[in-house]
């Protein structure tokens, strides 16, 4: 299969009716013919060489089977700030699978040169992306103020774009550049294949404690909402009372949300999502409360929420090489090999430079431990003993 210069990772010009222009403005357009030529040259010297397997027909996006009777798929929103492009690329290599969809976001303070560098390295590092066209990079970036609500705004916008880009994924996953997986995608897909697809995983509690005075009641204005290159916020001199129109929940900012819940948050077919968004626009660390409060105040979703964020990620850069070699079995600058990789595994070649059936997985030993954790969480959820309380 020839390389495809018109892949979304390069052109990002989407010809979809109704919403194409909106997504196109937000994505990262690259129109330089010379730049594409350089990328094709880099691809040629990166080991992506011609062979009989290369010339033969390979599976394409149309060969991936979706739906309740097949393996699930995840939509990953991976974000970072200035200087995080290399970490984002490494994280992408660690969580890549042709079934999934990926949206990468470097904050507005990142220079364009770093954003272009990320696009180039993604294009070269994972040959399958050129065939499956399942990775995109945000062009019109948000500020993502750490303490404000611009990060929440960016997450909701990313969710909206992912809904429009791909109608086949089942769960929305947020990851920062500081995260790193402790489980392969084959293991993750295998375990989630037994999970009801309307379930969301959100670590939450209504026991606010000290957070009521430090998180719920203070009023702030996030400058990043109005000026993309600003990451400061301003705090009002007076606090507001704890709301009575809805019950406030807080918890981990990392979430795994069902597609149906994401559609509810983005489309907002009742006033709950809009009412809470108005409140959390001026809240400290709004990502630690918005999804939690929406899902637990909605009669349609509060009973299909598991009280856990299922964190299977590490945050210590010093041990990432050990995780690669001992847990993920990932070679340097290459994707984690899974059942979809059909190339021969040698130290000088990438087994994932050739691919076969993306509708099967090959779970390893860690899937058993993760499966036990999932079973215990689902058993607890069925008892309705911990959700939205």
Radius of gyration: 21 Å
- Average pLDDT figure: 82
Portion of residues in beta strands equals 5-15%
Task: Please give the alpha-carbon distance between the first and last residues.
Answer: 53 Å
Protein structure class: alpha/beta
Query: Could you say how many structural domains there are in total?
Result: 1
Q: Reading side by side through the largest sheet, how are the strands ordered?
A: 3-2-1-4-9-6-10
Largest sheet, strands/sense/barrel: 7 strands, mixed
Organism: Canna indica
Protein name: Beta-glucuronosyltransferase GlcAT14A-like
Pfam families: Branch (PF02485)
Subcellular location: Membrane
Q: Could you list some keywords that capture this structure?
A:
disordered N terminus; single chain; two-stranded antiparallel sheet; 389 residues; alpha/beta; globular; 14 helices
């Amino acid at each position: 299969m020839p390389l495809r210069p018109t892949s979304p990772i390069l052109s990002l010009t989407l010809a979809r009716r109704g919403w194409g222009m909106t997504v196109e403005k937000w994505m990262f357009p690259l129109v330089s013919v010379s730049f594409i030529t350089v990328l094709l040259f880099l691809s040629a010297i990166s080991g992506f060489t011609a062979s009989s397997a290369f010339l033969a027909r390979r599976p394409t996006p149309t060969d991936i089977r979706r739906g309740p009777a097949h393996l699930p798929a995840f939509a990953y929103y991976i974000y970072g700030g200035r200087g995080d492009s290399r970490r984002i690329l490494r994280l992408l290599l660690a969580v890549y699978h042709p079934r999934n969809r990926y949206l990468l976001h470097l904050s507005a303070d990142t220079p364009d040169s770093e954003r272009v560098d990320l696009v180039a390295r993604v294009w070269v590092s994972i040959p399958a992306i050129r065939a499956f066209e399942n990775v995109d990079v945000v062009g019109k970036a948000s500020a993502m103020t750490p303490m404000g609500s611009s990060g929440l705004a960016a997450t909701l916008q990313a969710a909206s774009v992912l809904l429009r880009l791909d109608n086949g994924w089942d769960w929305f996953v947020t990851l920062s550049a500081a995260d790193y997986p402790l489980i392969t995608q084959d293991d993750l897909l295998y375990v989630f294949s037994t999970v009801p697809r309307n379930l969301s995983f959100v670590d939450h509690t209504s026991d606010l404690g000290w957070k009521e005075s430090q998180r719920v009641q203070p009023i702030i204005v996030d400058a990043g909402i109005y000026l993309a290159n600003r990451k400061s916020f301003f705090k009002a001199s007076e606090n507001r009372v704890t709301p009575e129109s809805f019950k406030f929940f807080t918890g981990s900012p990392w979430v795994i949300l069902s597609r149906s819940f994401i559609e509810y948050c983005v489309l907002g077919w009742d006033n709950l999502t809009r009412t809470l968004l108005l409140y959390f626009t001026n809240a400290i660390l709004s990502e630690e409360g918005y999804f939690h409060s929406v899902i637990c105040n909605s009669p349609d979703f509060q009973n299909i929420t598991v009280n856990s964020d299922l964190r299977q990620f590490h945050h210590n850069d010093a041990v990432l090489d050990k995780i690669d070699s001992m847990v993920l079995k990932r070679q340097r600058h290459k994707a984690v090999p899974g059942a979809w990789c059909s190339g021969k595994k040698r130290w000088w070649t990438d087994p994932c430079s050739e691919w076969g059936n993306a509708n099967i997985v090959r779970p390893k030993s860690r899937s058993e431990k993760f499966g036990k954790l999932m079973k215990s969480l689902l058993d607890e959820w069925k008892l309705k003993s911990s959700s939205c309380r």
